[in-house]
Amino acid sequence: MITIALPKGALLTDSIELFKQVGLDFSAFLDKSNRQLQISDPTNTATALLVRAQDVPVYVEYGQAQLGIVGYDVLREKQPEVANLSDLKFGYCRMSVAVPKTSSYRSSVELPPNGRVASKFVNCAREYFRKIDLPIEIVPLSGSVELGPITGMSEAIVDLVSTGKTLKENGLIEIDILYESTARLIAHPLSYRLNQSELHNLITKIRSLIDS
Amino acid sequence: MITIALPKGALLTDSIELFKQVGLDFSAFLDKSNRQLQISDPTNTATALLVRAQDVPVYVEYGQAQLGIVGYDVLREKQPEVANLSDLKFGYCRMSVAVPKTSSYRSSVELPPNGRVASKFVNCAREYFRKIDLPIEIVPLSGSVELGPITGMSEAIVDLVSTGKTLKENGLIEIDILYESTARLIAHPLSYRLNQSELHNLITKIRSLIDS
Question: Given this model, what pLDDT does residue B197 score?
């Protein structure tokens, strides 16, 4: 039996819709009264695990799930050893540099050398500023990154932007985009290579659905 | 003006109560309709930041807040460079090793060598198993750690236990305690040394409150 790791949060509804279209119904996870984190589809051909987005690649890397859906941002930040199979074309967002509207910075290179950038995505942020050759101190936060510039702790933030509403509410504007992100189908490399539980069949179905 | 970093979640209510008793009222943070992450007390003598528990030491370490309240578990896991001033005697919980009730393990040393332990507290877990000299692979998860043993990905978990309800609901039992944790008052070391904004006054008041 195939086990699939599904991410809580923004990508869940589209992920469940996708599997429904290839015959696997995990919509029980969308029921607000549901407290289960592991369910089987009604035909008993697959199991789904409901986990935090960052944990999806962990379950897939350890082979506990053969397949998973996760945002490209998580793959880019954590660099897990999983097979990145398909761009699922939903869950679009971008990893951006943002600064207070009231500041004078309108591009990343204008940020002061040895300035501070607050981010949940410390690896992505570090890589980006190294590439543009600007020495920056990364302040690692786990939430409400917009508080960095508001409190004066950092000149800028690197964060995931989807509608831009949070930035706007906090008086911040995007000045650069590191990369764009969408949901990805990932697989446990060995299970994929060995075609365990006829994994290829399911993947082919998903791919043709995405292409159509 | 003093800035104080307060942790979202389990410690918030008691933290706000503590500061209220020394004359600083941040109870606006308890109002469910509140969306502000930074407020001043009505007398305008202090500002409070509402941040994730793990981010409290970050704000204090960078001197953005001179004081903060955070669980000992976060200090133990992250080892931030802050002054650990007082045990506030609330927010009691313990960092424990737990296994499925159905397993045969009743003590950490009985766990199989090269087994797996899932945890959000990877540093605490690694240090503990190194100390008891048991080679263990730590599986880093960011939430729902109890899924580790349920799915068979790990033999055990290391997690924070307060009432024990989550463990019970998931068929897990505690077999060892790494350490006990309570809320701590922390300070930015330099601000504390320089007695910025008469920090010592406030700290003395809090300490005598705790001792009484």
Answer: 85
For residue B155, the tally of other CB atoms under 10 A from its CB is 20
Cβ neighbours of B51 in A, within 8 Å: 141, 143-144, 147
Residues A160, A94 contacting (CB under 8 angstroms): yes
Alpha carbon distance B187, B82 (integer Å): 6
Cβ separation of B150 and A62 shorter than 8 Å? no
Which residues, other chains included, contact A115 with Cβ-Cβ below 8 Å and sequence gap of 6+? A136, A137, A154, A155, A156
Domains along chain A? 2-91+182-211 (3.40.190.10), 93-180 (3.40.190.10)
d(CA A34, CA A134): 48
Span B70-97, average pLDDT: 97
Residue of B142, B154, B157, B188 to mutate, testing the A interface (most A Cβ within 10 Å of its Cβ) = B142
Q: Please check whether residue A137 is in contact with residue A156, taking contact to mean a CB–CB distance below 8 angstroms.
A: no
Amino acid, single-letter form, for residue B99:
V
Element (H, E) at A174: strand A172-181
Confirm or reject contact between B62 and chain A (CB < 8 A): yes
Average pLDDT, chain A: 96
Give the whole-angstrom CA distance, residue A12 versus residue A22: 16
Mean pLDDT of A32-53: 93
List the Cα angle A197/A202/A205 in 5-degree steps: 160
Of A100, A138, A135, which is closest to residue A122 (Cα–Cα)? Answer: A138
Give percent of chain A with pLDDT exceeding 90.
Answer: 95
